[in-house]
Design goal:
heterodimer; A: mainly beta; 7-stranded mixed beta sheet; 4-stranded antiparallel beta sheet; 0% helix; B: mainly beta; 6-stranded mixed beta sheet; 12 strands; 50% strand; globular
Chain lengths: 114, 112
């Protein structure tokens, strides 16, 4: 079975450029989560969706960040304009709806903003 | 609110030593509890879970028991290997809503 798919795996961009990260959750999962991981701040939840609807975006750092989930099989996280402090590994995860189920993480996108 | 507190690292052990990583939680109701492992350069993987009090999760020689009386879910392994070197995260999922709460992670290094 395919797990959570993220693309690209690595992204290097210059400050001020727009960055789009993509995620395909596991088929049938109805919750999707975006996380950011850095050495300084650890693992941070940015936003999560339930049935394609954003439920909690309180972790989104600022207006430069936006996330969409147009359908059950695709989500994007966009940063515009990007800044060097956005450099991190961004993970997407998905899960089934009941509390007894775990999250499945993708391999992550390593973003470097120069 | 709901939260997880886990033992700070880093932890360094010799091969075949006994491992304990402490995790305590705060939650209303009856959450599910998880341990995830992250190897260098990879995403988080589920290591084990427990969905109700007194359940024991186990996998790859690791164990953790859901203790409601002490609100704890400590991770243990009787004999660690070099290949167990990774970061370990304790996590909680409340029995309402879809949110997950992660601890800060504990880095484990096992030396030969």
């Amino acid at each position: 079975d395919a797990g959570v798919i993220q693309s690209p795996r690595h992204e290097v961009t210059e400050m001020g450029q727009e960055v789009t990260l993509r995620c395909k959750p596991i088929s049938g999962h109805n919750s999707l989560f975006w996380y950011r991981q850095t050495m300084m701040r650890g693992l941070e939840l940015l936003i999560y969706f339930n049935n394609n609807v954003p439920i909690d975006d309180s972790g989104m750092p600022e207006d430069r960040f936006s996330a969409k989930m147009p359908n059950a099989s695709f989500s994007t996280l966009k940063i515009q304009p990007s800044e060097p402090r956005d450099s991190a590994v961004y993970f997407c995860a998905s899960s089934l709806g009941s509390y007894i189920y775990e999250q499945y993480f993708g391999p992550g996108t390593r973003l470097t903003v120069t | 609110g709901d939260s997880v507190t886990q033992m700070e690292g880093p932890v360094t052990l010799s091969e075949e030593a006994f491992l304990t990583i402490n995790c305590t939680y705060t939650a209303t109701g009856y959450p599910s509890l998880f341990w995830y492992v992250q190897y260098p350069g990879e995403g988080l993987q589920l290591l084990l879970k427990a969905t109700k009090a007194d359940d024991k999760g186990s996998n790859k020689g690791f164990e953790a028991t859901y203790r409601k009386e002490t609100t704890s879910f400590h991770l243990e392994k009787g004999s660690v290997q070099v290949s167990d070197s990774a970061v370990y995260f304790c996590a909680l999922r409340p029995n309402t809503g879809n949110q997950f709460y992660f601890g800060t992670g504990t880095s484990l290094t096992v030396i030969p």
